[in-house]
């Protein structure tokens, strides 16, 4: 009987059966052949191609087992890293998601007999944190990527710097309080017994006539004296100002100095992300191949502060890249740039000069409230060319 037609019911049924996972005991890892029943697996084991594969494996069986074990470990860890990150998850959940891919490496071809053995091995090798619970084994991926470690160290350094700034501010306030208390002795209250013999009786005169007039006249005299003193003081200050006499410099209060420190801190503050739309950047990663390496692109959209969609200038292709795979572009003097970090972040400016020894540039702010201000020694990574 000839082969069934492609659109025949039997051919369609066979294709439907071949989709998804089949029984593991009828799978041959050496030939990467999945059989649907015991008879098919028996026929495959008696085939000539299977016998050739067994002869190749018998020459160096350890090499094939190491290869399959390495592929299984790498694919499993890659899925764990991309899908769950550093979250704590049950090992069986990850394994079920891993074997859902039809072309995966089966565990019966590796050096581990069970998933529990593989989980314990991950813990011994330091690749994951593993712990056993009544519900089973849980694993947690340990990210040892150099870029991730560098980013964590940068965040810790920034937190430490913020704590140091708070300690400096608290110490400065303490010094100001101590300076204000210098030369002033705190007078402690003295308590004495009450002596009623020397007290005089207080009498009230309710006669409205003379008492009211006396009180009103005394109040008027006091107000008049105060008004005259205020007028004299104003006249003296005006005369001193008009004659050009130097006035006493007003001493800054502790609050003013603290506010100045806060403004300086904001001006010099830095962020660990710098991407901005409409700037030109250079692709420095080699993972995309030589086709995109060292190519210039325009940032079209910033995603979650640390990633961006860029358009390659030469080819027009759009890529989604992390900021660690990009770097800023310094144009020729006279071109427009954007400040990406520091106190003048977000402002556009004109590049005046480049200091190659200090890896910095000098720009003139061209927008915002600081327009016209000339800023020196801005680092290369803090400015980039505008599109």
Can you describe what's shown?
Helices cover 42% and strands 19% of the residues. The strands form 4 sheets. The protein has a 5-stranded antiparallel sheet, with no helix packed on it. The chain is elongated, with a radius of gyration of 41 Å. Among the domains are: 20-141, Arc Repressor Mutant, subunit A, CATH 1.10.10; 274-329, SH3 type barrels (Roll), CATH 2.30.30; 330-386, SH3 type barrels (Roll). A hairpin with an 8-residue loop joins strand 13 (360-365) and strand 14 (374-379). The chain has 9 helices and 15 strands. 11% of the residues are buried. One of its GO terms (biological process) is DNA repair. InterPro entries: C2H2-Znf_KIN17, DNA/RNA-bd_Kin17_WH-like_dom, KIN17-like, KIN17_WH-like_sf, KN17_SH3, KOW_KIN17, Rib_uL2_dom2, Znf_C2H2_sf.
């Amino acid at each position: 009987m000839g082969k069934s037609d492609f659109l025949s019911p039997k051919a369609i049924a066979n294709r439907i059966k071949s989709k998804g996972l089949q029984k593991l005991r009828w799978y041959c890892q050496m030939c990467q052949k999945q059989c649907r029943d015991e008879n098919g697996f028996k026929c495959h084991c008696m085939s000539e191609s299977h016998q050739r594969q067994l002869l190749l494996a018998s020459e160096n069986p350890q090499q094939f087992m190491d290869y399959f074990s390495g592929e299984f470990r790498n694919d499993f860890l890659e899925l764990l890293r991309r899908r769950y990150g550093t979250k704590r998850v049950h090992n069986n959940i990850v394994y079920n998601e891993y074997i859902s891919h039809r072309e995966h490496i089966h565990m019966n071809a590796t050096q581990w007999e069970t998933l529990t053995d593989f989980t314990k091995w991950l813990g011994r090798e330091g690749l994951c944190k593993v712990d056993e619970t009544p519900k089973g084994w849980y694993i947690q991926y340990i990210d040892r990527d150099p870029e991730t470690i560098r980013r964590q160290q940068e965040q810790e350094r920034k937190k430490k710097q913020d704590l140091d700034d708070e300690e400096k501010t608290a110490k400065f306030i303490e010094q100001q309080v101590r300076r204000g208390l210098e030369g002033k002795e705190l007078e402690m209250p003295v308590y004495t017994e009450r002596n009623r013999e020397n007290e005089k009786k207080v009498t009230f005169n309710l006669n409205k006539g003379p008492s009211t007039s006396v009180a009103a006249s005394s109040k008027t005299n006091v107000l008049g004296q105060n008004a005259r003193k205020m007028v004299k003081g104003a006249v003296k200050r005006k005369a001193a100002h008009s004659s050009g006499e130097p006035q006493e410099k007003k001493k800054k209060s502790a609050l003013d100095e603290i506010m100045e420190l806060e403004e300086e801190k904001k001006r010099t503050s830095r962020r660990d992300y710098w991407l901005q739309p409409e700037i030109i950047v250079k692709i420095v990663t080699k993972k995309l191949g030589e086709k995109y390496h060292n190519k210039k692109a325009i940032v079209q959209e910033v995603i979650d502060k640390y990633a961006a969609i860029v358009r390659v200038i030469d080819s027009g292709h759009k890529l989604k890249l992390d900021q660690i795979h990009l770097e800023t572009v310094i144009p020729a003097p006279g071109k427009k740039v954007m400040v990406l970090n520091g106190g003048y972040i977000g402002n556009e400016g004109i590049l005046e000069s480049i200091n190659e020894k200090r890896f910095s540039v000098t720009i003139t702010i061209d927008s915002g409230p600081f327009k016209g201000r000339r800023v020196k020694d801005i680092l290369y990574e803090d400015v980039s060319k505008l599109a």
